[in-house]
C-alpha cells in the first residue's frame, strides 16, 4: 500500500478552528513539517479539507 507525504506549506494563523484541528490531527505542527501517512480514504478526506495549506506527494 502506498504512503502519502504531507507537508504544511501555509500557516494556520487566522484559519477556522476546524482546519487547525485537522492540521493537528494529521501530526503537522510548524510550517515545513512533514509526515508520512497511509494512503486511505480517511487520510485523503482530511487532506482535502486543508488542501490549500498543504503539499502532498507520494512517499517512497
Automatic annotation (TrEMBL):
Keywords: Ribonucleoprotein, Ribosomal protein. SUPFAM superfamilies: Ribosomal protein L30p/L7e. Residues 4-54 form the Large ribosomal subunit protein uL30-like ferredoxin-like fold domain. GO terms for biological process: translation. InterPro entries: Ribo_uL30_ferredoxin-like_sf (IPR036919), Ribosomal_uL30_bac-type (IPR005996), Ribosomal_uL30_ferredoxin-like (IPR016082). The keyword RNA-binding does not apply. The keyword Disulfide bond does not apply. It comes from the Bacteria. GO terms for molecular function: structural constituent of ribosome. GO terms for cellular component: cytosolic large ribosomal subunit. Belongs to the universal ribosomal protein uL30 family. Part of the 50S ribosomal subunit. This is Large ribosomal subunit protein uL30. The lineage of its organism: Bacteria, Bacillati, Bacillota, Bacilli, Lactobacillales.
Amino acid at each position: 500500500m502506498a504512503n502519502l507525504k504531507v507537508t504544511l506549506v501555509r500557516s494556520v494563523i487566522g484559519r477556522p478552528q476546524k482546519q487547525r484541528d485537522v492540521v493537528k490531527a494529521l501530526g503537522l505542527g510548524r510550517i515545513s513539517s512533514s509526515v508520512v501517512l497511509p494512503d486511505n480514504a480517511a487520510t485523503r478526506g482530511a487532506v482535502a479539507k486543508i488542501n490549500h495549506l498543504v503539499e502532498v506527494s507520494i512517499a517512497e
